[in-house]
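Query protein
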Amino acid sequence: MSGTGRRRTFTRRDAGPPVVAPWIRTRLRAAPGAAVALALLVLATVCLAASFPRAVDRYEDAGLRRAVADATALRTSVQLSAPPPSLGATQQERESVLRPASVRERYQSILKVVERPLVADPGRSAYGVRTTKSLESPEKWLPRPTGLPAHMTLVAQNGLADHSRLREGRLPRADGTVTASTPELEAAVTTETAESLHIEVGAVIHVPAVERAPLAVRVTGIVAPRDREGAYWATQPVLRTPSLVRLPAQGAEPSIYWLGALLLAPDAAPALLGTPGAPARYWHLAPSPAALTASELPRLASAIAALESGPGLLKVRALTDPEADASTDLDDVLASYAGLRSGIRPLVAVAAFGSATVAAVVLLMAGGLTADRRRGELALLRARGVSLRGLTARLFAETAVVAVPAAALGLAAALLAVPYGRLSYAAWTAAAVALVACAMLPVRAWITHRAVRVHGAREDLASVRPSRRRTVAELTLLVLASASVFALRSRGTSGGSAGAAGSGDPADLDGSASGSGDQLVALAPVLIGVIAALLLVRLYPLPLRWLARPAGRLRGAVGHLSLARAGRTSVSTVLPLLALLTALTTAAFGGSVLAGVADARDRAALLSLGADARVEVMGALPADLPEQLRSASGVREVTPLSIGYQARPGTGVETVSLTGVEPEGYARLARSTHLGAFPAGELTAPADAKPSKSAKPPKSSGSSGSSGSSGSSKKGASSESPLPALASPAVAERFGTQPFPVRLEDGSDITVRITVVRELTPAVSGTDFLVVDRAGLGAVAARPTALLLTGDRMDAGALRKAAGSAADVRLRADERARYVDSPLQSGAERVYAVAVAAASGYAVLALLLALVRAAPERSALLARLRTMGLTRGQGRRLLVLEALPQALLAAVGGALTGWAAVRLLAPGVDLTAVALATPGDSPPPGTAALHTDPASLLLPALAVLLVATGIAAAQAWWTGRRGSVRELRAGDAR
């Protein structure tokens, strides 16, 4: 048959074009675990990165508001005032200017002149009319401390009912139309004014008037301020609290009189024109705390400057009076805050750069792990004709499908975790992390598969040599690291901006305007870690190869094989080692910073008190008090002191503090506190140093030095031999080692000879002090006036109860707590600690990724070796020994790099701002220098060793439980 053997084909009529599976869905279904891991990594990284700028905004804004709140309202309020109405105007015009409607209209116009971000708080601001000259009251019943009559300030301020509570009577009113000729007014006084000046409801106070009878002011009510420290009352403290005014002294007795305030109704302001008090209008603008943000500090300073002496003041004068004036100290408060912030920001930037570097390395490692896992697939696609651009575009889209939603969730988590802060910075940070996560796999694929290859070459350090480009890049990093270290050592972390901030120039208040130079300085620890990692990668194989040769002569192949494999490690070791060393350097530097801050606060508290607790009174302590305190809970030892702060050495008028102590106990205290330790025998009084009877104290406590004429009659504690004394360097330089007399506060004289010189001593602080044996003092001078207590967990309440209300009891823990009260400092510490912890976590993750990347190869190796007779125990030892050199290198290298970074950068790092300083306060004693912290160096390094060996042992145990068939199958790995 002709049709026999002919091949027949059958075609379906409804057959369409071939179905192509979607690329992204297919890849995600093929490796769901890798997609979930990438999503979690991006989510965590975005959450941390987006939280950082918002956390910085939160503690910086809180610190600024605390600085403004701690300053008095007298300093922070913007005080605008206009002179008295012109005498050239008619009386009706002068009165209309002072009426409440006119003053309120000017106030509302002034609010529109104020430029943002300076925003006035209407609830705390005030305006009104006051007499600029106090008025003398002839009332005899008002107190007269030295015979001078009391003076009164008449104030007609708005909002008295809203800012006070009525205690007695009623608030003042103004009946009818008040003019300059009104004979009587009503007023209220505060409770403090009423108590100090003996004013009662119904009292009438007369003040002088111009060309008519005195103006009578009847007190109709007594009020209590709702917020006595608020701007309404504190901007003019005389409104709530009367004061004693001291006139220039013209004799022995000072001239003092009381000055108080009478609070009138706003409608009564025109009556002040009938007095010689020169009434003037004023508008006090209290800044709104909610509008104060650290990010707008330069603009805020510019707005204040414009209102004080710029365009804003010209507008105010156009609205009120050509001679209107403005004054405030708010710009000084902002400059003080900016100086403190400029010392804290660089330290936080160091931790931020370190954590960001480690996170970026981990993202690159994750992309490298995915690229290695899919190396065969991508090479096959390139061999089949896929263009490089098309391949990278597909990989970018595939990664974006996972990374972008994860970044959005991470940003949402950051906004929930830190609800305060600028959204734009957080959004840009999240977008940058998402972009890096999406680009890491395409970029790696572009670099690896630029040329079409079927089989890749070996990529271990034995075959791949560093290229010239890599050498140039490493040398460039070395130059940058050297420049940053030099800049940090020479300029310091603040780079001189702290001093500039104090100048008040708005441009100097911008902490972010320091330029790229300060960013390079903040990168110094990171660059040191990077250089160390690159150096160790170059040197790492050499000692292992040297050790592998003698290990080959030993019995057994496990040691030799592990060293040989560790010495031929993959080129990809650079990223894990870079992550580990950067993280360990950041952790060591950050831990040293935090430890230095804690030590500086402890040291400052110790220098301030001299021991763990201090009990001091103005006079002499009760005789049984030392024994009572010795029995208190937590007290180990009590050291009594007899301190006189007005001792006069030699024949001059300079005074020093002289302290009488028990040499044995005081020497133990100085030795335990490390405050000028000395041998007790150097201070013990000689046997013949027996004090004679003390002289009676002088009858007059005046400051005149008439005691020199009767010096021979006041030798109360003189002795045959001079008393040995411990002195400060300044006193020792002034008097040398020769005996010299000292006049004590009780009028007695002693002779001392300096035998010990110390810069510090527990009894007192300062640069002028003497310490002698109490046995050489008279009975009056030897009475204890202070007690230094040492111990643990002392009960402050029990100590205060035992010491009594007259004693000043201070604990070292309470003194230390003063230095962590600022939100700026405590917030910076928290952010720094979180950044260091995040860097450590990313380092562990980098170690995990490195071990996961090598897991398939190691599993296949164990499977092959087990077919040759390798036992499970030998397999575990092989993997542990193979992972140990790299982990040991990272641990030792990280510890040494951290130590080197701290030692190199310590001269340029000043921790005083973050540890001790507070805005507007004088610096406490002591300095805060950076020093190495052993725990920060050793604990992270040991953690790296434990994690690396633990993971290798777990991998060997898990591989031993599984069969060897799957690992030996060719082409099974994904």
